[in-house]
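Task card 7
Instruction: Convert sequence to structure tokens.
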Amino acid sequence: MKVITVKQPYASLIAEGYKEYEFRTWKSSYRGELYIHAGLGVDKEGMKKFEYLHLDYPQGQIIAKCKMTDCVLMDEKQKELLKEKDPIVYQGAIESQSKEYGFHLEEIEKIKPIPAKGKLSFWEYEEK
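Output:
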């Protein structure tokens, strides 16, 4: 199954249902089931910003399963929609001046963690 590696705290925000979009500088035509892998990288400022949620932040593990249903250009209209949805969770994307795409994630479900090494872009995890 396809996997995308996400830094903490953002991987846990996705797994817990706080974040429905993951942002990248590249466009994707992929649609379908996707694992969320919590990478070894940590955004220290992000960790401080979301400490009030008291979430667990595993690293080096696949922690959620979802469906990627769309890939949208983060234009001003899309940024406005995210600002209405949750200006704290989506602050970075809202304020970004670079060209980014939002991968829309639905049917997010936290799963029993699966240890795995992450990779760049999408990668395949062979279930055993």
